[in-house]
Amino acid sequence: MSDETNPFESLQEQIDDAAAHLDVDDGVIERLKNPERVLETNLTVELDDGSLETVRAYRSQFNGDRGPYKGGIRYHPGVTRDEVKALSGWMVYKCATVDIPYGGGKGGISIDPTQYSEAELERITRAFATELRPLIGEDRDIPAPDVNTGQREMNWIKDTYETLENTTAPGVITGKAIDSGGSAGRVEATGRSTMLAAREVFDWIGEQVEGASVAVQGYGNAGWIAADLLDDVGATVVAVSDSGGGIHDPRGLDPVDVKEHKNETGSVVGYGDAEELTNEELLTLDVDLLVPAALENAIDAELAEAVQAEVVVEAANGPLTPGADDVLAERDVWVVPDILANAGGVTVSYFEWVQNRQRFSWTEERVNEELERVITDAFDGLVDAYETHDLRNLRTAAYVVAVQRVIDAAEQAGTWP
Ligand code: NAD
């Protein structure tokens, strides 16, 4: 795995790449490449043994031209200011790609959550929510889950915010448990859009996802649900991995069984009689579809030369370095970019927020139907931009569509003061 590429520089390159196809002022592009504001703060919390520890936390509000800032909160030792800035920018262009009325934000705490008890994590989360209170709000900035956070953390943040504000504001955060104002279908949404994106791209290139062999890197929320739903539509998941390593069975793995094994043992490794393989071996396996669903920079230019999949659908944010993108474009490997493929998460977060504002719950069937419409319409929009502008890949197409939408909103608002 290459960790030398700065994800924020990758984001800026992606925007420049799109801007080359648009009629836009350099001054505007400079603004679209940088966050509006970044909170960097220290959280001092008491550990269970009575000692104090200080951890670093961030929230980047990248752009609010199309609506309130929106984006997840990540707990990982690799969280840095630049990573959070990049992730917040990707949120802006993701929301614009699927045309939902949000800007982009992202937050993170630089910790390894496995090193803390649940009570310690609750104190860290509530300390962060207290720092975030002046920045977030139902119409201002709406966090959500990301790597190593989920319903539990979202519920703590909602409760802290509502207690401090003395109000009821379920729309201040999404990805909540159903009883705390969450939406049906939110847990599955990122994996579902990954599956829908795979179906659309195979269809577009005149092939079928049914019967395709699939390798999935990362077996968390995005990866395991994508594997399960791809299996449901008739693909064969032959390899999966997590931070502990990978497993491979050319006859096909049962995604639900593998998940149960991971829940019991902490890793996919050791499942049944599947052979073990490294993450690098998984990424270069001879499969029809590769789904990177772990972290940024999983595939660099060198590894991209060895990728054998015909199609890559990015469930993770930023799994390909710009160098890898170039190599795969040259090698005619189809890549569905993260800002479309994993946009199901933020799309159903948007549906959750709409339901919170309406004080009315939708059925899971309605959520999934609306999600399918959003993803398939957005995919058609990418293909249209790709063909109209004769672009080098679908990522540039997505940025051309998304950057233009942000520019349009900014122009309509005007420059003030
Ligand atoms: P998660 O914490 O649920 O899962 C992450 C998985 O990646 C775990 O299985 C972990 O073991 C694995 N992993 C970590 N390092 C790895 C490595 N080096 N090799 C192989 N596997 C590794 O996180 P998630 O929510 O599934 O997020 C995964 C990616 O999807 C991230 O890039 C995230 O930003 C993106 N994403 C998530 C959502 C969402 O709704 N959860 C939405 C959009 C995008």
From TrEMBL:
Active site annotation, chain numbering: K106
InterPro entries attached to this UniProt entry: Aminoacid_DH-like_N_sf (IPR046346), Glu/Leu/Phe/Val/Trp_DH (IPR006095), Glu/Leu/Phe/Val/Trp_DH_C (IPR006096), Glu/Leu/Phe/Val/Trp_DH_dimer (IPR006097), Glu/Leu/Phe/Val_DH_AS (IPR033524), Glu_DH (IPR014362), NAD(P)-bd_dom_sf (IPR036291), NAD_bind_Glu_DH (IPR033922)
Entry keyword annotation includes Magnesium: no
Gene Ontology molecular function, alphabetical: glutamate dehydrogenase (NAD+) activity; nucleotide binding
Entry keyword set: NAD, Nucleotide-binding, Oxidoreductase
Biological-process GO terms, alphabetical: L-glutamate catabolic process
Entry binding sites for substrate: K70, K94, S349
Domain Glutamate/phenylalanine/leucine/valine/L-tryptophan dehydrogenase C-terminal: residue ranges: 183-414
Pfam assignment, any one: ELFV_dehydrog_N
UniProt: NAD(+) binding residues: T190, N221
Domain of life: Archaea
Marked site positions, Important for catalysis: D146
Listed SMART domains: ELFV_dehydrog
PANTHER family noted in UniProt: GLUTAMATE DEHYDROGENASE, GLUTAMATE DEHYDROGENASE 1, MITOCHONDRIAL
Subunit composition and interactions: Homohexamer.
Family stated for the protein in its record: Belongs to the Glu/Leu/Phe/Val dehydrogenases family.
Name of this protein: Glutamate dehydrogenase
Species classification: Archaea, Methanobacteriati, Methanobacteriota, Stenosarchaea group, Halobacteria
